[in-house]
What we know:
With about 425 residues, the chain is an alpha/beta fold. The chain is built from 11 helices and 15 strands. The protein is globular.
Amino acid sequence: MWRRLSLTITSKTSNLRFFSTAIRRNGSLIEDEGDWFYSSEWWGTYSEGHTVFRSSSDKGNGIISVVSHPCSKPEIVQWTSMEKWLQQRYAEIHSENEQFTVLGYRWRVLRFNDFTRQTTAKIMAACRKSDPLSVFIMQQPHILAVPYLKSMVSVGLATLASCRYDLKNAVNGQKPMRVLCIGHGGGSLPLFLASKIQGAIIDIVEIDPLVILASTQAMGFPASTVMTSSGRRALAHCEMIDEVMWKGTHERLCLYEIDAEEFIVQTTNVYDLVFIDAYDGDDIFPHKLWDPSGPFLETLGNRLHPEHGTVVVNLHADSDILDSDGSDPTSFQQLLPMGKYVSRVCKAYKKVLVGHKSCSRRGGVGLGFIASVPWLCNTSLVVCRGFEVGGMIPERDSVLNTVVSNSQEVEDDLNLPFSCFEYINRGFVMVD
């Protein structure tokens, strides 16, 4: 969940650049269809879109809706490549030929209470040529449309690499990476990670069944990932088209309808990387998820890898992060007019997770930092174990330089369509 910066473009702020929609990676130019440049296509008012899902939640999220908006990318001339991909996938899985027709692409915006934009994803609609009524939708897993998700991915993976974690082998599927996502939304983050990291095994925790329903019915998230309370797949048999779209990915995604505290107490998994984005419809980050004396943080300490475990928390503000002249804040205090609990949240996570008895001190140190998110009133909190600082006492510049240096490995290994630097360098402050 996020809030947009209410910036007025004046002579003082006009130097804030719009990010390029393409980036050169490994000699090729990669288009970022999720670039913030395209946000004008889906940021419009509720009445400007077409509602495709709407229902009332009894889990504190108010009215949950999904609103559809037109998108400009990819252009129609590029649709044939997706049709060929679907045909090839079908032939590989079913050993027979089938033709597909792409019907179009749309933005889908998940909202709480008709106002709060929880997340945004791009979906493709298609059908089999032999059956025009066989329409299905597929979320585009390579697209992260909201800057705070790019921030979480950038700081999380670059920090994990800075803790001497073998990211390349995880990306290539040669070693498993255990990931936990608390808060599901439309599922863009776990889909992105699963599609980019072949060794990623991702547990997703969502307390609201309506959010899960909205994501699978209207956001193009694979329904085959939903789990029962007994830990089995809710769908005994995967639909044919789900196999075509998601085989090789959905097997590594497990979506649980459960309270985060209950899940973390029950699970025995040890996680390399944890992402937490758990605001409700009233923009409240539940106290039990940051209570330093509560069971959630204490148990999370036991479920986090002792040598390199990394946690990323999305936090957002009640007011603009930028100073009045458009510049970044210069201190932890300046960065935190953000919601009255943010400073305490940061300190609680660092105190409990870094100081936990399970935290290993071999070859690195535990630390925490925050980085502000471009264009939004959000910040990413990162707490990690085993950060490699070469025997030195960690200080801001050395930590920042190490994370930035490792972000290049992240960009290259995952073939990212965006630069991690943009999401690491801005408003970088150590947590005391």
